[in-house]
Amino acid sequence: MNQILVTKKLYITPELKRKKKIYKFDFLLSVFLVCILISFCIYAEYARNRDEQVSQEILANMNLTEDTTVADSNVLIAVLDDAEQTAELNSESQEEIKNANKTIQTTQSGYRYSTIATINIPKINVEYPILDGETDSVEETEALLKISPTKFWGPEPNEVGNFCIVGHNYRNTRFFSKVPTLENGDIIEITDLTGKTINYRVYNKYTVDPTDVSCTSQLTNENKEVTLITCTNDSQHRVIVKAREV
Fold first, then answer.
1. Which residue of 21, 65, 178, 227 is 20 to 30 Å from 7, comparing CA positions?
2. Domain residue spans of the chain
3. Between the CA of residue 225 and those of 5, 22, 38, 42, 238, what are the distances in Å?
4. What confidence tens digit (pLDDT) does each residue in 81-103 have?
């Protein structure tokens, strides 16, 4: 007996056509969005590499003159009996060197800033210039943070008080990304514009809410301290690393 194979004919209805168009549109939209996301990631990485290069160029071009003026003044100071005059000579000579080595630069967005010191953290292979803006506005700070770690609060580098430095955590090896891995006992080196380097030893590390600025307190009992501020990896809190002069 012959068997007759019957194939059910598929009819293309208007509803099926409409669904097909929707699926096609959704697919193309998904591909477009993925391309946009990839392009954004590539550009963000390019921008970070460019900012890293700018920071290293600033570091390479810094002209840190040794404090020879201070050394020469010490010879004269040896024959002076007035302690106040001795301190004044030291202070004036240091200020002259700092001013001579300070250069004003401008960001692409028009903010003016100067480089006031360098930071070196051997354990995590960090070495960057420390920037300081003219106005200390939020917008200015954000612009400077794209270039390098920036002064947030406190005295001049290597002076009595709490010198606070803020830097981005890009969750890689750039800027302050590795700062959260620091531990008590690790060394932070700050070199000011006179060429003087002071070592600071980490003695505390903790996290706070973004609005908590208690870490910037200047109550240091006449000690020289450094505070590093960056984000946690999820950007929900701030990592605070405190260090004191060795």
1. 21
2. 15-61, 64-101, 104-246
3. 90, 62, 42, 39, 19
4. 454 554 555 666 667 776 666 77
